[in-house]
Amino acid sequence: MKRIYQSFFVVLLAALTLTACTDSKTPQEGDKYSVIPTPMPNLPTVTEIFSLSCGHCRNMESMLPEIKKLTNTKDVNQVHVIFNESAQKAAFIFYAAMVQTDNKPSHKLKEALFAFVQDSPKDMTNEQRQAALTKIFHDNGLKSPYELTKEQQAEVFKMFQQSEAIVRDAALQSVPAFLINGKYLVNTSAHDSLQDMANTITYLKDKK
């Protein structure tokens, strides 16, 4: 009988231990985040991978200042995906802004680019689209994508190559996504709030 009780308490304690681990507020791998197949240690601490054509990415852009505040992150590196032809066109627009702003286009400019890509009338002619895009860049004191120098075009092409490598090595399937320390991919949909996601990002920033 004594052995039966001992066995019972061993099982009970094991169950309690498992419950304690499950209830922990520590972000769990496979739930809140995953380790990417090919780590990229040279990336900045926090990288957001996004697309100007993505509605959720547009919403996330408005949340970035709060995310930076909650995670004590000075800068969030941004990478535009090039999944398909439409994403490549949007990426060219974004990177045309990047090469002229030391990789830090303003929130105002990015919102204007989101609006151009997502809200422009479908029946706009190519000439109208070019004029509208040129106006956005000129209003922000920049050359339009059609006016870039050969050196700037080469820099944009380099950013395309980097973007392609990051998406490939991270085995990325959707955006927006946050890559931490070039190794941990945050599962944005697994979080209940901005604070919840910020907690995961903060935890992963300190994780080796």
Quick synopsis:
The chain has helices at about 1-25, 55-70, 85-100, 105-120, 125-140, 150-170, 195-205, and strands at about 35, 45-50, 75-80, 175-180, 185. With about 210 residues, it is α+β, with helices and mostly antiparallel strands.
What would you say this structure looks like, in words?
The N and C termini lie far apart (48 Å). Helix 2 crosses helix 7, helix 3 (85-98) packs antiparallel against helix 4 (107-119) and helix 3 crosses helix 6 (150-169). Strands 1-5-4-2-3 form a five-stranded mixed sheet, sandwiched between helices. With 208 residues, the protein is of the alpha+beta class. It has helices spanning 2-23, 55-71, 85-98, 107-119, 126-139, 150-169, 194-205; strands at 33-35, 46-50, 77-80, 177-180, 184-186.
Fold topology:
Elements: H1 2-23, E1 33-35, E2 46-50, H2 55-71, E3 77-80, H3 85-98, H4 107-119, H5 126-139, H6 150-169, E4 177-180, E5 184-186, H7 194-205
Parallel strand pairs: 2-3
Antiparallel strand pairs: 1-5, 2-4, 4-5
Helix pairs in contact: 2-4, 2-7, 3-4, 3-6, 4-5
Elements, N to C (H/E)? HEEHEHHHHEEH
Straight-line distance between termini? 48 Å
Structural Rg: 22 Å
Give the biggest sheet.
5 strands, mixed
Mean of all residue-level pLDDT scores: 89
The chain-level structural class is alpha+beta
**Percentage of residues in strands:** 5-15%
Quantity of strands, as a count:
5
Largest sheet: spatial strand order: 1-5-4-2-3
**Regions with little confidence, pLDDT below 50 for 5+ residues:** 8-23
Residue share in helix: 40-55%
Instruction: Output the number of helix runs.
Output: 7
Shape: globular
